[in-house]
Amino acid sequence: MSLKKCFSCQIMLVISVLALTKSQGQTKDTSFLSSSINNAISLYHAQINRAAGIYHGVEYEYYPYHFQEGTPYFVTSDSVAASIYYDGVLYQNMFMKYDQLRDQVIIWYNNDAVRLIDEKVDSFIIRDHLFVRLISDSASKNALATGYYEMIYNGKIRIYRKSIKHVLVKTDMTEGVIRTIDQKDNYFVRKSGHFQSIDNVNEWYALFIDHKDEIKEFVSRNNLNFKKDPAGWLVQVAAYCDKL
Asked: Is residue 95 helix, strand or coil?
Protein backbone atom coordinates (compact mmCIF):
# COMPACT_ATOMS: atom_id res chain seq x y z
CA MET A 1 0.00 0.00 0.00
CA SER A 2 1.32 3.47 -0.88
CA LEU A 3 2.15 6.04 1.79
CA LYS A 4 -0.70 8.29 0.68
CA LYS A 5 -3.26 5.46 0.76
CA CYS A 6 -2.02 4.28 4.15
CA PHE A 7 -2.60 7.62 5.86
CA SER A 8 -5.87 8.15 4.01
CA CYS A 9 -7.05 4.93 5.65
CA GLN A 10 -6.03 6.28 9.07
CA ILE A 11 -8.13 9.38 8.57
CA MET A 12 -11.14 7.39 7.37
CA LEU A 13 -10.81 5.07 10.37
CA VAL A 14 -10.98 7.94 12.86
CA ILE A 15 -13.93 9.51 11.03
CA SER A 16 -15.74 6.16 11.05
CA VAL A 17 -15.22 5.82 14.80
CA LEU A 18 -16.62 9.29 15.36
CA ALA A 19 -19.69 8.55 13.24
CA LEU A 20 -20.29 5.21 15.00
CA THR A 21 -19.94 6.75 18.45
CA LYS A 22 -22.37 9.54 17.66
CA SER A 23 -24.92 7.12 16.20
CA GLN A 24 -24.81 4.95 19.31
CA GLY A 25 -25.22 7.95 21.59
CA GLN A 26 -22.19 6.99 23.66
CA THR A 27 -20.87 10.52 24.05
CA LYS A 28 -22.16 14.05 24.33
CA ASP A 29 -18.77 15.58 23.67
CA THR A 30 -17.00 14.77 20.42
CA SER A 31 -14.20 17.30 20.91
CA PHE A 32 -11.69 14.55 21.67
CA LEU A 33 -12.57 12.59 18.54
CA SER A 34 -12.67 15.77 16.48
CA SER A 35 -9.18 16.49 17.75
CA SER A 36 -8.17 13.00 16.70
CA ILE A 37 -9.37 13.70 13.18
CA ASN A 38 -7.34 16.89 13.05
CA ASN A 39 -4.29 15.08 14.40
CA ALA A 40 -4.67 12.34 11.81
CA ILE A 41 -4.96 14.90 9.03
CA SER A 42 -1.89 16.74 10.30
CA LEU A 43 0.03 13.48 10.45
CA TYR A 44 -1.09 12.65 6.94
CA HIS A 45 0.13 15.97 5.57
CA ALA A 46 3.39 15.69 7.50
CA GLN A 47 4.14 12.28 6.04
CA ILE A 48 3.17 13.30 2.52
CA ASN A 49 5.30 16.43 2.79
CA ARG A 50 8.33 14.37 3.74
CA ALA A 51 7.98 12.37 0.57
CA ALA A 52 7.23 15.43 -1.55
CA GLY A 53 9.38 17.16 -4.10
CA ILE A 54 9.91 20.20 -1.90
CA TYR A 55 12.75 18.31 -0.23
CA HIS A 56 14.52 17.67 -3.52
CA GLY A 57 16.44 20.93 -3.51
CA VAL A 58 20.18 21.44 -3.14
CA GLU A 59 22.32 21.70 -0.03
CA TYR A 60 22.43 25.21 1.40
CA GLU A 61 25.87 26.72 1.92
CA TYR A 62 26.26 28.55 5.22
CA TYR A 63 28.29 31.74 5.41
CA PRO A 64 31.87 30.95 6.45
CA TYR A 65 32.20 34.16 8.45
CA HIS A 66 30.38 36.20 11.09
CA PHE A 67 28.54 39.48 10.55
CA GLN A 68 29.19 42.08 13.24
CA GLU A 69 26.06 44.03 12.34
CA GLY A 70 22.91 43.07 10.50
CA THR A 71 21.82 39.72 9.14
CA PRO A 72 21.71 38.30 5.62
CA TYR A 73 18.30 36.82 6.45
CA PHE A 74 14.83 38.32 6.65
CA VAL A 75 14.48 39.85 10.15
CA THR A 76 16.73 37.30 11.95
CA SER A 77 18.72 34.15 11.24
CA ASP A 78 16.20 32.06 13.21
CA SER A 79 13.98 29.63 11.34
CA VAL A 80 10.23 29.96 11.82
CA ALA A 81 7.10 28.10 10.77
CA ALA A 82 5.98 29.38 7.39
CA SER A 83 3.75 28.55 4.44
CA ILE A 84 5.00 28.14 0.91
CA TYR A 85 3.39 27.48 -2.44
CA TYR A 86 5.91 25.27 -4.22
CA ASP A 87 5.61 23.44 -7.53
CA GLY A 88 1.84 23.79 -7.47
CA VAL A 89 1.43 22.52 -3.89
CA LEU A 90 0.74 24.50 -0.70
CA TYR A 91 2.95 23.43 2.22
CA GLN A 92 2.11 24.75 5.68
CA ASN A 93 4.08 24.83 8.93
CA MET A 94 7.38 24.44 7.11
CA PHE A 95 10.36 25.63 9.14
CA MET A 96 12.23 27.95 6.85
CA LYS A 97 14.13 31.19 6.52
CA TYR A 98 14.72 33.62 3.68
CA ASP A 99 18.28 34.56 2.78
CA GLN A 100 17.87 38.07 1.37
CA LEU A 101 21.55 38.52 0.61
CA ARG A 102 21.51 35.59 -1.83
CA ASP A 103 17.77 35.75 -2.53
CA GLN A 104 17.30 32.10 -1.54
CA VAL A 105 14.61 30.20 0.40
CA ILE A 106 15.83 27.56 2.86
CA ILE A 107 13.94 24.74 4.57
CA TRP A 108 15.04 21.87 6.81
CA TYR A 109 14.95 18.14 6.14
CA ASN A 110 16.50 15.65 8.59
CA ASN A 111 18.38 18.55 10.21
CA ASP A 112 19.94 19.50 6.87
CA ALA A 113 19.44 22.93 5.29
CA VAL A 114 17.94 22.61 1.81
CA ARG A 115 17.85 25.47 -0.69
CA LEU A 116 14.67 25.38 -2.71
CA ILE A 117 14.67 25.50 -6.50
CA ASP A 118 13.75 29.10 -7.27
CA GLU A 119 11.83 28.31 -10.45
CA LYS A 120 9.40 26.13 -8.46
CA VAL A 121 8.65 28.73 -5.78
CA ASP A 122 5.48 30.72 -6.39
CA SER A 123 5.12 32.51 -3.06
CA PHE A 124 5.62 32.14 0.68
CA ILE A 125 4.45 33.71 3.93
CA ILE A 126 7.02 34.15 6.68
CA ARG A 127 6.55 36.18 9.87
CA ASP A 128 3.19 37.34 8.44
CA HIS A 129 4.89 38.86 5.38
CA LEU A 130 3.93 37.69 1.89
CA PHE A 131 6.69 37.22 -0.67
CA VAL A 132 6.12 36.33 -4.30
CA ARG A 133 8.54 35.40 -7.04
CA LEU A 134 8.33 37.85 -9.90
CA ILE A 135 9.75 37.24 -13.35
CA SER A 136 11.57 40.00 -15.21
CA ASP A 137 9.40 41.68 -17.83
CA SER A 138 11.51 43.35 -20.48
CA ALA A 139 8.42 45.13 -21.82
CA SER A 140 8.01 47.14 -18.61
CA LYS A 141 9.72 50.46 -18.08
CA ASN A 142 12.47 50.11 -15.46
CA ALA A 143 11.84 46.36 -15.51
CA LEU A 144 12.47 44.62 -12.23
CA ALA A 145 14.89 41.71 -11.93
CA THR A 146 13.62 38.19 -11.38
CA GLY A 147 13.50 37.35 -7.68
CA TYR A 148 11.48 37.42 -4.46
CA TYR A 149 9.50 40.56 -3.64
CA GLU A 150 7.42 41.40 -0.60
CA MET A 151 3.88 42.35 -1.54
CA ILE A 152 2.94 45.18 0.80
CA TYR A 153 -0.32 46.15 -0.90
CA ASN A 154 -2.65 43.94 -2.92
CA GLY A 155 -5.48 45.63 -4.77
CA LYS A 156 -6.17 46.67 -8.33
CA ILE A 157 -2.82 48.33 -7.86
CA ARG A 158 -0.08 46.24 -6.27
CA ILE A 159 2.94 47.49 -4.37
CA TYR A 160 6.11 45.43 -3.95
CA ARG A 161 9.21 45.98 -1.87
CA LYS A 162 12.58 44.51 -2.77
CA SER A 163 15.17 44.62 0.00
CA ILE A 164 18.67 44.43 -1.44
CA LYS A 165 21.40 43.48 1.00
CA HIS A 166 25.15 43.89 0.53
CA VAL A 167 28.19 42.95 2.60
CA LEU A 168 30.37 45.86 3.70
CA VAL A 169 33.93 44.92 4.61
CA LYS A 170 36.48 46.97 6.52
CA THR A 171 39.71 46.16 8.33
CA ASP A 172 40.35 47.12 11.94
CA MET A 173 43.82 47.10 13.52
CA THR A 174 42.57 45.25 16.61
CA GLU A 175 39.49 43.34 15.42
CA GLY A 176 40.72 42.37 11.99
CA VAL A 177 38.19 42.03 9.17
CA ILE A 178 34.75 43.39 10.08
CA ARG A 179 31.73 42.49 7.98
CA THR A 180 28.36 44.21 8.24
CA ILE A 181 25.14 44.03 6.26
CA ASP A 182 23.80 47.07 4.45
CA GLN A 183 20.19 47.14 3.20
CA LYS A 184 18.44 49.26 0.60
CA ASP A 185 14.71 49.01 -0.07
CA ASN A 186 13.37 49.48 -3.59
CA TYR A 187 9.68 49.83 -4.41
CA PHE A 188 7.67 48.84 -7.45
CA VAL A 189 4.07 49.39 -8.49
CA ARG A 190 2.15 47.04 -10.75
CA LYS A 191 -0.46 48.95 -12.73
CA SER A 192 -2.37 47.63 -15.73
CA GLY A 193 -0.16 44.56 -15.82
CA HIS A 194 3.13 46.46 -15.97
CA PHE A 195 5.77 47.23 -13.36
CA GLN A 196 7.28 50.61 -12.60
CA SER A 197 9.92 51.43 -10.02
CA ILE A 198 8.99 54.23 -7.63
CA ASP A 199 11.87 56.25 -6.21
CA ASN A 200 10.01 59.49 -5.51
CA VAL A 201 6.52 60.99 -5.47
CA ASN A 202 6.85 62.51 -8.93
CA GLU A 203 7.16 59.06 -10.49
CA TRP A 204 3.89 58.10 -8.82
CA TYR A 205 2.15 61.29 -9.97
CA ALA A 206 3.30 60.60 -13.52
CA LEU A 207 1.52 57.24 -13.44
CA PHE A 208 -1.72 58.87 -12.30
CA ILE A 209 -1.44 62.16 -14.15
CA ASP A 210 -5.23 62.47 -14.55
CA HIS A 211 -5.68 62.43 -10.76
CA LYS A 212 -2.50 64.23 -9.76
CA ASP A 213 -4.22 67.10 -7.97
CA GLU A 214 -6.57 64.81 -6.06
CA ILE A 215 -3.69 62.61 -4.92
CA LYS A 216 -1.65 65.61 -3.79
CA GLU A 217 -4.58 66.85 -1.75
CA PHE A 218 -4.96 63.41 -0.14
CA VAL A 219 -1.25 63.30 0.70
CA SER A 220 -1.34 66.77 2.24
CA ARG A 221 -4.52 66.09 4.20
CA ASN A 222 -3.02 62.94 5.74
CA ASN A 223 0.46 64.38 6.33
CA LEU A 224 2.14 61.63 4.32
CA ASN A 225 5.89 61.83 3.82
CA PHE A 226 7.51 59.62 1.20
CA LYS A 227 11.09 60.26 2.33
CA LYS A 228 10.39 59.36 5.95
CA ASP A 229 8.11 56.40 5.27
CA PRO A 230 8.02 55.30 1.62
CA ALA A 231 6.19 52.04 2.37
CA GLY A 232 3.48 53.78 4.38
CA TRP A 233 3.12 56.49 1.73
CA LEU A 234 2.77 53.97 -1.09
CA VAL A 235 0.30 51.72 0.73
CA GLN A 236 -2.03 54.57 1.71
CA VAL A 237 -1.86 56.32 -1.64
CA ALA A 238 -2.36 53.07 -3.56
CA ALA A 239 -5.47 52.32 -1.49
CA TYR A 240 -6.76 55.81 -2.27
CA CYS A 241 -6.02 55.49 -6.00
CA ASP A 242 -7.82 52.15 -6.10
CA LYS A 243 -11.02 54.06 -5.29
CA LEU A 244 -10.62 56.70 -7.98
From this structure: strand
